[in-house]
């Protein structure tokens, strides 16, 4: 089954790659330690260093959980960092099928724990999550399900969660969902 999923992912990546023009211009790139020994998580950081800890927005790009689109949210991250006092951290989480669930979820938790461990840099009382599509699903899942940051047992630590067209209704089969734009064959 892995071989089948890997071949589908490879086909989709080859199909989409020529259409992607990803050239992010972050202020910094930071490799955050992962819970997995010897592994790091690449992040693009937007926002200037402040004399005091800043609020932070942790962003997860859309990817269908499969496509290599890290850096695609550069314009969004730059806009938020330039128009607010937030530092924006764009996260390159692990993709399927090479990394099975909960790899991306774990990466998101690891980034939040790292932010909390940097009190001189980030205001831990003002952590927000955002994401597009699959990234929005990750943001929502971590904010609502992570046992490390609230979930059912305690009050959530997250100030805000911004979900931009995040998939949330996985119970209804896709063909039964209403089409927002029937002319767009990619987004069906």
Walk me through this protein's architecture.
This protein has 188 residues and is α/β, with parallel strands linked by helices. 27% of the residues lie in helices and 23% in strands. It contains four helices and six strands, in the order αβββαβαβαβ. Strand 5, helix 4 and strand 6 form a beta-alpha-beta unit. It is globular, with a radius of gyration of 17 Å. The model has no long low-confidence stretch (mean pLDDT 90).
Main β-sheet, spatial strand arrangement: 1-2-4-3-5-6
List segments where confidence is low: pLDDT < 50 over at least 5 consecutive residues. none
Helices and strands, in order, run as HEEEHEHEHE
Strand content: 15-25%
Give the biggest sheet.
6 strands, mixed
- Structural classification: alpha/beta
Question: N-to-C terminal Cα separation, in Å?
Answer: 25 Å
Kindly state the mean pLDDT as a whole number?
90
By DSSP, the count of extended strands is 6
Tertiary shape = globular
Rounded to the nearest angstrom, the radius of gyration is 17 Å
The number of helices is 4
User: What is the helix content?
Assistant: 25-40%
Features:
alpha/beta; globular; 4 helices; six-stranded mixed sheet; single chain; 6 strands; 188 residues
Question: What's the arrangement of secondary structure elements?
Answer:
Layout: H1 2-16, E1 28-33, E2 40-46, E3 54-60, H2 74-83, E4 87-91, H3 103-116, E5 122-132, H4 134-145, E6 158-164
Parallel strand pairs: 3-4, 3-5, 5-6
Antiparallel strand pairs: 1-2, 2-4
Helix pairs in contact: 3-4
